[in-house]
Design goal:
By secondary structure, the chain is of the alpha/beta class. It is built from ten helices and ten strands.
Length: 251
C-alpha cells in the first residue's frame, strides 16, 4: 500500500549548515507518529519542508505517491496537509467560529455556498461542521468570542480545530503542549486520543515525553538533523542512542 506521506533522503541546508540530513521515513494513514529530539535537532525545519515553507536541498517528498517537494504551502494545504505552529498565529479580529469557517475554504470547502446563493442549507451545514469540531476541542460555548481574547490553552485548542476544519489527510502538530499547565496537558492528551479514535493521521512534534509516550504508536528521533531511531515507544525508551542524545540516563 502506498504510504500517505513518504520522505526519501530529504536534506535541507542553509549555507554551510545542514539542518536536516538525508532523512527517510513514511507515515501510513491512521498513524499518530511522534517526532522528538533536542532543541536544534531539525524538527521544525522538517515540518516546514513537509508544509511547503521550505523546499528540500535534496531528496523527495511524496503524498500518496505524488511528488510534492516543489509545491508551495497553499497547494500543500489543498492536498490535505494541515499544520499548527509552535507560536500561536490566530486572526486578530475574528471570532472562534469564524476561524473555522475561514479554514473550511482552504480546500474549497464551503465555496459553493459563498458563490451560489441558491444553495439552500449549505451555510447551516458549514456552521454545524464547525461547531462539531469546536465541541471536540471543548470550545463550543465560546464560539462567538474574539479568538485572541481566549486563555492561552484555549487558543492552542483553537489552532488545532482550525487545522481540522480543512479536513486534513495529515495533521502536523508543532509542540501543542508548549506553555500548557498540567490540567490543560491532560485535556490535550484526551483530545489526541479522540482524534486517534477517529482515525486522523498525525505527525506530532513535542517535548513533553510523557505525552508523546502515551499517545504515539511510533516515534521518530532526530539528532543534528539525522534520524537516529524509529520505533514503538517501548523501543525508543531503551534505545541507547536515544538515551544518550535526548532522554537521559534515567529515562
Amino acid at each position: 500500500m502506498t504510504p500517505l506521506l513518504e520522505l526519501r533522503n530529504v536534506s535541507k541546508r542553509f549555507g554551510g549548515l545542514t539542518a536536516v540530513d538525508a532523512v527517510s521515513f513514511s507515515i501510513e494513514a491512521g498513524e499518530l507518529v511522534g517526532l522528538i529530539g533536542p532543541n536544534g535537532a531539525g524538527k521544525t525545519t522538517l515540518f516546514n519542508i513537509i508544509a511547503g515553507v521550505y523546499r528540500p536541498s535534496q531528496g523527495q517528498l511524496l503524498h500518496r505517491g505524488d511528488a510534492i517537494s516543489m509545491l508551495d504551502p497553499a497547494r500543500i494545504a489543498k492536498r490535505g496537509i494541515a499544520r499548527t505552529f509552535q507560536n500561536i498565529r490566530l486572526f486578530q479580529s475574528l471570532t472562534v467560529l469564524e476561524h473555522l469557517l475561514v479554514a473550511q475554504t482552504c480546500r474549497g470547502l464551503g465555496l459553493l455556498a459563498e458563490l451560489n446563493p441558491l444553495v439552500s442549507g449549505a451555510e447551516r451545514t458549514r456552521r454545524k461542521a464547525a461547531m462539531e469540531l469546536l465541541e471536540l476541542v471543548g470550545l463550543e460555548n465560546r464560539h462567538d468570542e474574539i479568538a485572541i481574547h481566549l486563555p492561552y490553552g484555549a487558543q492552542r485548542r483553537l489552532e488545532i480545530a482550525r487545522a481540522l476544519a480543512t479536513s486534513p489527510e495529515l495533521l502536523l502538530l508543532d509542540e501543542p503542549a508548549a506553555g500548557l499547565n498540567d490540567t490543560e496537558t491532560v485535556g490535550l492528551r484526551e483530545m489526541l486520543d479522540a482524534l486517534r479514535a477517529q482515525h486522523y493521521t498525525i505527525l506530532l512534534v513535542e517535548h513533553d515525553m510523557k505525552l508523546v509516550m502515551r499517545v504515539c504508536s511510533r516515534i521518530l528521533v532526530l539528532e543534528f538533523g539525522k534520524l537516529i531511531a524509529s520505533g514503538a515507544p517501548a523501543e525508543i525508551q531503551v534505545n541507547p542512542e536515544v538515551i544518550n542524545a535526548y532522554l537521559g540516563a534515567e529515562a
